[in-house]
Write a structure and sequence with these properties.
Elements: H1 4-13, E1 54-59, E2 65-67, H2 74-85
Antiparallel strand pairs: 1-2
């Protein structure tokens, strides 16, 4: 029987698990305001709730719905990675804006 790590490594090698580019500054979450005219509506909580569900946590990407923090939002991570993976953006450099 394969270990959990080797199962994960095999799934990653087959492209079944996505690798995310980490934020470089390690600061606050990237997302602070709605960037789309139609924000993502909150999903109903399953019964029983997931093991990682936190009723005190709020996600700005999901219009403040409870369950997880914005910086731990998998849907937001996938959306950001989708944008980073677009060929039109591959040549752009990352830059930091000082306010």
């Amino acid at each position: 029987m394969a270990s959990r790590f080797s199962q994960y490594a095999l799934a990653y090698a087959r492209g079944l698990i996505r690798a995310f580019v980490p934020k470089r500054d390690g600061g606050p979450p990237i997302f602070r305001a709605p960037v789309h005219p139609d924000p993502i509506p909150p999903k109903p909580v399953s019964d029983p709730p997931p093991r990682t569900y936190d009723p005190n946590a709020r996600c700005d990407y999901h219009m403040g719905s409870p369950g997880h923090w914005t910086d731990r939002c998998y849907n937001l991570r996938h959306r950001i990675q989708d944008l980073r993976d677009q060929p039109q953006l591959q040549g752009l450099r990352e830059f930091k804006v000082e306010l």
